[in-house]
Amino acid sequence: MPELTVSSVLTAERSVGIREVARLSGVSIATVSRVFNDAAAVNPETRERVLEQAQALNYQPSSLGRNLVRGRSELLGLIVPNVAFPLYGEMIGGIEEVLGREGMSILLALSHDNVDSEFTAAQHLLRHAVDGGIIINSRLGLNAPLPAPRGLNWVQVAPEHTGTPHRVELDNEAGGRLAALEMLGLGRRRLAFVGAPGRESADRERGFAAELRRAGLIYRRAQGDYSEASGVQAAGELLEHNAAVDAVFVAGDLMAAGVLRALHQRGLRVPEAVAVVGFDDAAIASLLYPRLTSIRQPARAMGTAAAELSLRLLGGHRTEPITFPPELVRRESTGPPSRLSARHF
């Protein structure tokens, strides 16, 4: 296979019309090339004449050739744990919208929530000469940094480890406080938390626990892994031996779906007997029965912010970390306690 060079790409481009555009416009091939590379040195009248002839001939310059000349690929690498999780889909939508306006495309790779896979995915993207990169929920830390050539900075969305200068994240601790205040405001006093591995869940629990300490309360705890099945199992652990629980804060909406299912299987009405608050406000939250009160994570806006941050880095500008505030979205899974809430399960 012949070697791909700037010269060979431009030669191929010329063979499909650039010579004809130049001849009919009365200019050189180099002038046509400058017009399509947005060179300010081209006379406005000449530029207009060239563009008119190009349109008449339906001529389109090769973006590959133009990018090789500029030393840019117009590609942004994006690493996500998986594409099935709805929240990541919303983030990708925000990223794609911003980059599309700039004529850039996404090159996607999956990390599968695995450090080794994440490192390999980053190397794969770099081999494709991406101009920049965004990584969601990075597991790589200071002892195992992301591979990057000089000049390429990764923007991280909700990274597992702190200290990354170019990042976009949610104030998860504030979200935990919102959940606690919702439950306390409803008069719930026998509270529980279902967590999952990682910094985000830990921060959510930290805020939750801080508000309960302020109210002089303790809480029960169970561990899941963000899956619905783990939510079912965690709820079973919380309710075994007739333990008294009248409100459960769950670190993710999919786990909260499992908690709701487990409560239903035990004949416990939500919210009359047990109130439930989830986290993320994913699409599933409004599809469950009862509809789930959740702490909203503005996923699309976070994706938009990450893309804009990447563009600023590509432009050589300084950036600051961006932290979004959470929001409580109240639905039917929380409500005032009834006489059933005093029952010991």
From TrEMBL:
GO terms for molecular function: DNA binding. Transmembrane segments: none annotated. Keywords: DNA-binding, Transcription, Transcription regulation. The keyword Transcription applies. Signal peptide: none annotated. It holds the Pfam family Peripla_BP_3. Residues 16-70 form the HTH lacI-type domain. This is LacI family DNA-binding transcriptional regulator. It comes from Deinococcus arenicola. The lineage of its organism: Bacteria, Thermotogati, Deinococcota, Deinococci, Deinococcales.
